[in-house]
Write a structure and sequence with these properties.
InterPro entries: Beta-lactam/transpept (IPR050515), Beta-lactam/transpept-like (IPR012338), PASTA_dom (IPR005543), PBP_dimer (IPR005311), PBP_dimer_sf (IPR036138), PCN-bd_Tpept (IPR001460)
Helix content: 25-40%
Largest sheet: 7 strands, mixed
Number of helices: 21
Structural class: alpha+beta
Shape: elongated
Main location: membrane
Distance between the termini: 112 Å
Keywords: Carboxypeptidase, Hydrolase, Membrane, Protease
Protein name: Transpeptidase family protein
Organism: Pontibacter aydingkolensis
Number of strands: 31
Amino acid sequence: MNIKKSIVIRVRVVFLLICLFACAIVYKIVQIQFMDGARWKEISKERRIRYQPVFATRGNIYSDNGSILATSLPFYRVAFDPTVADAETFNRGVDSLSMLLARFYKDKSEDYYRRKIKNARHDGRRYLRLNSRQINYQDKKMMAQWPIFRAGKNKGGVIFEKVEKRFKPFGLLAERTVGFINEDKNGAGLEFSFNNHLAGTDGEALFERIAGGNKPIYDGTEVKPQHGYDIKTTIDINLQDVAENALYKALEKTNAEYGCVIMMEVKTGEIKAIANLGKTKGGYIEDYNYAVGNQGRTEPGSTFKLASMMALFEYAPDVRLGDTIDTGDGRYRIKNTIMTDAKTGGYGKLSVQEIFEKSSNIGVAKLMEQHFSSNPQAYVDYLNKFGLNSTLGFQMDGEARPFMKSPQDRTWYGTTLTSMAIGYELKLSPLQTLAFYNAVANNGVKIQPIIVKEISKTNTVIQSFNTRVLNEKICSDETLKKLRSMLEGVVANGTAKNILSKDYKVAGKTGTARKVKNGRYVMEYSTSFAGYFPADNPKYSCIVIIDSPKGVNVYGGDVAAPVFKELADKAYARDLAMHKSLRARVAPNKDSMPQVGAGNLDDLSYICNKIGISHHPNITDEEWVKVEQKMRFLDFKPNPVMANKVPDVKGMTLRDALFILGNQQMDVKVVGTGKRVAQQSLEPGTDITKRTKITIVLS
């Protein structure tokens, strides 16, 4: 066989093999496409379609009078299934729709949107996100009337994906207390501590994974989300505002590192204000909860002398306030250390009352040595009995654990007893110190501080938090009498004379504790003032901490006490219960109609039906109404909300007003703490420009 014939045969064999391979490929394609097509489509569908969560609406956080501290407002992303609409509806409306999209978003041309939509329809894409920008509720209502979209989800293909944003009407007020929660479920404050209640329970629905994202499939199997519960706090917005402003001014004036203020009701333990401000390059912000957490747990200094004197009077009830101690020249050797008093040259002879008023370290140390040097465990046992060695079980996460030594510890030295007596070699958080002072104000009853009063849903209370007693009687009545006299003396004659008020009595104690750096005490101080008022009938207790102030006067009486005074003055001025009773009071008119100004038509009709109030809702096409109060019924009038126009929110609740103004993309500032909007800074009907600012006044 010649070479030429051999080559031809080989070529023919290779060609035949290629033909057979090609036939095999064609056969396999036919088998996959037609014979096994249904099975593979089902497998593909199973992989593309899956259940995904439908997030619940987060609950609201309220102040003590119902003002909203945090709420969720709805926003939407616009997506589109261009394959849903029939050819006639699509072709007739695509040009107008593209023009409206270009005018609304102002980011791309009309031609861009037209090509984007037509190409997606041609390619059979069933999910097309038109724009990533979120729109508000009013924009959603407007878009729902656009060409193609007006046919709805099933016939027009429009998809409005709901996204909720957390909104705080009072801005940075109580920011750290309200707190936050991130996508990883980490956070701080009430948002984090009560996340299980606020978050609700997510639902689920089928979503199809297609090019461009996930398209929801509503087949009737979806599970609706259970929206979160609301929580009502004990925070008083007015007192919170005063506390933060007073603290901020003090920190700025002294260039301090951080500070905190806590104010609570004596009888109930309800916290009315809790402010925390830390120093940053841009000023002071609420960056940590120093009042409760570990970073605020410090050696309390002289405010702890109250606990030492309580232990002394309980252990040796025969000690009288008039008994005297020679404090000498202001220097006293204890083992191998020297203890000093603030006054150069010393105070000389002082009574027990004066020792406390002038905050004499030497006087307190000598009293402790006289009575507890042979039995220091008795002193520590009293501190433990007072509950100073244990946490309070506070409602917010992150409460610091007290640090308290005992004689069995390896770090208990010969000077530890006297050091602890004046507030060193132990650590407490400000909240734990305040709870102790509050017990003295509360006739010896130590109660647990609370910051959340109720958990509710749709105005139905799910859980209430009542006052919980931690210690029925922290000490004897005789001891209480002595302690109160000393606390009042501090303000009347001692280290806090600068906050003496002619209107009401204040009882309290200053504190100035040296700080530790690198294991050694340095000339930096943590200053404080803790007390209560009015001293003769206590209503509020309060503690102020200013850490590391700079300047000449860096004592608790100079730095922290004035903050206490400013807050106490405000509380006294607005609380008529602390003033003399009015001789006459106007009796309420029980037959008067409820004070309703405006709101949502469906909500108001529902409420009127529930409580049996005659009303005339002769309106069917308006979502929002004004209410006119007639003699025996409520008359509803239209109150339309128009796009790009300032709405009329007077008479509405704060939540309704925020909902409407937020959907109009307006920046809202809230003033006052009433239930309804009394005034608004912009007239209804005024044109809205980008991020128009409006102030609403509550009354």
